[in-house]
Amino acid sequence: xxxxxxxxxxxxxPTAGNPDQSGIRVLDHSEPVVLADxxxxxxxxxxxKLPIKQQPSWPDADAVRAASDELASLPPLVFAGEVDQLRSxxxxxxxxxxxxxxxxxxxxxxxxxxxxxxxxxxxxxxQMAVVLTYGASVPVxxxxxxxxxxAKPRSSDTETRGGVTLPAYRGDIVNGFDFTPESRAAxxxxxxxxxxTAVSTLNLIRAFTQGGFxxxxxxxxxxxGFAQNPANxxxxxxxxxxxxAIKFMIACGADFDELKRVExxxxxxxxxMDYERPMTRIDSRTGTPYDTSAHFIWIGxxxxxxxxxxxxxxxRLRNPLGVKLGxxxxxxxxxxxxxxxxxxxxxxxxxxxTRMGAGKIRDxxxxxxxxxxxxxxxxxxxxxxxHGNGLTTPTxxxxxxxxxxxxxxxxxxxxxxxVGTHPGGIHVELTGDDVTECLGGSEQIDESTLASRYESLxxxxxxxxxxxxxxxxxAEELGGHRG
Length: 483
Ligand code: PEP
Ligand code: CO
Description:
Blueprint: H1 38-43, H2 61-73, H3 80-94, E1 99-104, H4 115-136, E2 140-144, E3 158-161, E4 164-167, H5 181-184, H6 189-210, H7 230-251, E5 264-269, H8 273-276, E6 280-283, E7 288-291, E8 296-299, H9 309-315, E9 321-325, H10 331-341, E10 350-354, H11 361-374, E11 380-383, E12 390-392, E13 398-400, H12 402-419, E14 425-429, H13 447-450, H14 464-482
Parallel strand pairs: 1-2, 1-14, 2-5, 5-8, 8-9, 9-10, 10-11, 11-14
Antiparallel strand pairs: 3-4, 6-7, 12-13
The chain binds phosphoenolpyruvate and cobalt (II) ion.
Phosphoenolpyruvate binds near residues 153, 301, 355 and 387.
């Protein structure tokens, strides 16, 4: 992997004529406005001096500058108050008083931002959340890998097919998936299209989750439209119990206004600096910077170097942060990440998302948890049972075995049980559609079935039924852990 600095042309330039200090637009203009210190503003560009990985080579410097200017002038996607609220929810999860459910595509695509696909993903997350809440009697924080999960790290900068080598696909916000020189060229216009696609996705999510669709009294309707399968039949049974409980409480005179709306947070990997930097604004209440492209940002396994650009940039923001931890993570690395990203040991600030692999988690996770017990930090621990379990079939499909996913989840709970720490959440790649991308599950998807509906441009996702099955399993583990 090569380390290189961001070239001059890719640097964010403040919009000319911007009334706010140093070209950073304030997040909102309610009075009184607290301005940021000059050192805070300058610090937001310190990452440019540091080694950086996984950025595209943009062919046109002026076009990148123009796209950055435009992004910097557009409204934020999220507000600082919502971000603060999420931080306090995550603090509860870190204490074992809530559980994080984070799910969505590996790579969202512009073409996939349709009402139907967004609705199916939201429904799937809501169904999983109900299974977890009811099964384990715990509040569930709902978060989508949605409305901005457009940029992908790649293991190689290029891809070769039939003797032709082109730039690797880095996600729709950078280039196209089609294997032609035109499509694979990094196109700065996609930065702005990414923003607008995120806006329309988040708008629909907000409408669904605030406008009555997510009302717990709709618990049955979220199950409609999916092909009949054992997991959603099991869900029907649970939904009937919830229905009965709600009717009983209504008959007792309980006020269920609280059930009408759910909090649903957005998240994505903080990877593409030409997007994240111009989306960063100063909160007028506090004079501190927030990345307004999402509520929650995580730093990936490939870009979490302690002296690298990503860790430096995100360390300066107020958003709650995640960091992926693979099986080779040392205790020392973990402790230094805590010092860098959460120096004040702020509740809810830092989430470790472990992605060890089913065969490794039982050895790799306990030493990290033991070390945390002796440290003065309380990060939230979340399992990503997807990214350590990839395999490629002889026919060339990237896939994962559902059994490995389940086994990693079990290993995660076992490790926390043994050490006495809190298993605080799950992070999964899923879709609400009936795709055939991961092997197994009770539909018994096998290698010959993979081809029938494989749609992911990146990693394989759990389909609707596999997602529900996993939720039932996690609910049992979590219920057992808490009970
Ligand atoms: C991802 O979450 O899509 C991803 C690339 O994960 P990781 O950084 O853990 O490999
Ligand atoms: Co992925």
